[in-house]
Amino acid sequence: MLDLEGPQLTAADKQRLQHPATGGVILFSRNYESPDQIYRLVSQIHELRSPQLLVAVDQEGGRVQRFRDGFTRLPPAAWFGRIHAQQKKRGLQLAQEAGWLMASELRACGVDFSFAPVLDLDLELCGVIGDRAFAHTPDAVGALAFAWAHGAREAGMASVGKHFPGHGGVREDSHLELPVDGRSLDEIWNQDIRPFRHLIDNGLAGIMPAHVIYSQVDEQPAGFSRRWLQSLLREELDFQGVIFSDDLSMAAAHVAGSYADRAQLALDAGCDMILVCNNPAGADEVLDALADYHDPVAQTRLVRLHGRLGQPMAQLHESPRWRDAVQALAAAEADLAEQQLELG
Predict the structure, then answer these.
(1) Long-range CB contacts (< 8 A, 24+ apart) of 327-336?
(2) How do the pLDDT tens digits run along the chain, 344 residues long?
(3) What is the DSSP string of 9-36?
(4) What domains can you pick out in the chain, each with its CATH number?
(5) Is the omega angle on the peptide bond into residue 20 within 30 degrees of 0, that is, cis?
């Protein structure tokens, strides 16, 4: 899965996307100008290949929402956690509506899926996770993430949970350095993994592992570890969906060597699709190294990530479901603001 240079396909983009080792595209804010523009861009990507390339984006809400103008501004995951702590039913309903909103608006533009929901726990350590986590307890995270994923599925979108087995127990940002989590497997298994297990048991389609070393379990980061991806995720948790690597350009991935080495190590560990972003030379190195690579099992899994349903954005905006969902989020936001004023 590769990225693009800007809001239109360039000749270099098209060449990379037509390479036999390319299976998908991840879009960023630099690729977005408007709903109409992104619809045209995604249509052009889909027309390049048959079967179509997968098109994904990080559209979690809060700090991590690549498409903003023309899309509903989604609150961060922790916002739902705060409501859930006071009113469980309302928190779950709002999470489901937000998942549906996110997915229905992306599907209106042809995007297949978002790398969401975040299943990490907010252990008040990791700033890069922070309010991207629904809550600090496994049960709350699992319940809210399941509600979010259920809403997305109603809109025709599969969900990809991240960052397995949990990024919340370290202070470091894996975009910038390699975090090491020294907790025992028992502690991680009984805490951080519980939301993943809950969603796996309910049909989670994809998982992205963390670029984190869990030193009491394996010397390799989870995304390069057969222990984590094969023994624990596939065998112990019986996960049958797609495993995506996190971006191989992140600083934490440098431990695995060259871009070609990183790609091969991630695939050998059990990843079905690897991400290479923001480094065209690295992407070309990986494509050259994988020119003859073929994994029919991974391809079968990846088919399930293609989006379903979908209606034009103008038609979506006229639907009662869309209006009700937007109004429900706005009303809850007003209620929280009022509570904060009273407390202040």
Answers:
(1) 328/93, 328/94, 328/97, 329/72, 329/74, 329/75, 329/94, 329/97, 329/98, 329/101, 332/83, 332/90, 332/94, 333/75, 333/79, 336/79, 336/82, 336/83
(2) 999 999 999 999 999 999 999 999 999 999 999 999 999 999 999 999 999 999 999 999 999 999 999 999 999 999 999 999 999 999 999 999 999 999 999 999 999 999 999 999 999 998 899 999 999 999 999 999 999 999 999 999 999 999 999 999 998 888 888 899 999 999 999 999 999 999 999 999 999 999 999 999 999 999 999 999 999 999 999 999 999 999 999 877 888 789 999 999 999 999 999 999 999 999 999 999 999 999 999 999 999 999 999 999 999 999 999 999 999 999 998 888 777 666 65
(3) --HHHHHHHTSTT--EEEE-GGG-S-HH
(4) 11-343 (3.20.20.300)
(5) no
Return the closest-CA partner of residue 228 out of 255, 265, 173, 177. Answer: 265
DSSP type of residue 149: H
Q: Which residues are catalytic?
A: 175, 246
Which tokens hold the place of 226?
A: 């057969």
| Cα 188 from chain centre | 21
Contact between 157 and 142 under an 8 Å Cβ cutoff? The reply is no
Provide the terminal-to-terminal Cα distance of the chain, rounded to the nearest Å. 47
Predicted model pTM: 0.95
Owner of token pair 């592992």: 209
Q: How many CB atoms lie within 10 A of CB 226?
A: 15
* Cα dihedral 119/121/125/131 (nearest 10): 70
> Is the distance from CB of 335 to CB of 141 less than 8 angstroms?
no
Q: Is 261 helix (H, G, I), strand (E, B) or coil?
A: helix
> Using the 8-state DSSP alphabet, how is residue 118 labeled?
B
Torsion sign across C-alpha atoms 284, 286, 287, 291: positive
Cα 113 from Cα 56, distance rounded (Å): 5
Contact indicator for 248, 282 with CB cutoff of 8 Å: yes
